[in-house]
Specification:
103 residues, YaeB-like fold, five-stranded mixed sheet, 3 helices, 5 strands, globular
Amino acid sequence: MKQYNVEITDAALDDMEKIYNYIAYELRSPETAMAQYDRIAESILALDIFPERYSETKYKIKNGMKLRQMPIDNYSVFYRIEQDNVTVTNVLYSASDIPDRLH
């Protein structure tokens, strides 16, 4: 079975930090924040095997490349596949203005 290299961009890491901070500090639930962060991180790392299992979205990034979307609870992980690499570009709240926030 083919295995992919998974890369998380700085923008995606920043998105994950914002999610954590919102849940931990705004909602005052640090345990829930850590659990959500861990679920997202584990799901991202699992993209090393068969990342094609999630479909392409209608969204494109600046270079015209289509993104795939993996739902996790109320969040979506956006990523692209290039040869043997999976690059996670964003982790966004699913009800947010997604097209304006994609990188």
